[in-house]
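tool=predict chain=A
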Amino acid sequence: MDPASTASVYDRAGFGRSVQRGSRPAVVVVDFSYGFTDPSYPTGADLSAPVLATARLLEAARAGGVPVVFTTIAYDPGQIRDLAWLKKATGMAALKLGTRLVDVDERLAPRTDEHLVVKTGASAFFGTALASYLASVRADTVIVTGATTSGCVRATVVDAVQHGYPTLVPRDCVGDRAQAPHDASLFDINEKYGDVVDSDDVLAYLQGLRTAPSVPAPERPGPPAPEHLSTTLSEAEAPA
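tool=predict ok
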């Protein structure tokens, strides 16, 4: 089926609509660690272009006070021995805790006050506290960058929308080891789970939030007020 026919099929089925962007986004940078961004490792590839595009996006996010989260995938010896995923994807066993492969690429200049999620699955949400962190910073939109598009990025986007977050994926800020799975995954994400856009679109969105009037975050509900018991006697209780 040619691309135009494919697009028509998805449109008729009601896919591909745009998400509603909020006013309190957070950026989640998925697995831009050396094990993925350094082509000298078997698990890596030359992802310089999406890494540098993400670095530019992070500058804008930090300038606007937007929360930034990094993830890395890392395993201890017991997990390397026993996890089912590592029986299927044996190369991932190279991502050992304490090695350079699991360090976030320094071109992104990660800060000590930025949250780091250490994960063992594809999704940044699976088995981690990412959902509670996003709730704690009152995020209402998630911007996902990172690697790989067909693996951990896609899994994170799917879980983000399932947790209720409108999700943006700047296409020039994500990368994969091969073009075909990268392209197919971006198509799938854009049709079903989030908006695949250019990073310039996201930069304009972040800049617009900086110049827009401040919108306070909704108040968290407090405990219910205690009931006040009446001290007035009814007619039936009053002494004769």
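The chain has one domain: 21-211. The longest helix spans residues 48-63.
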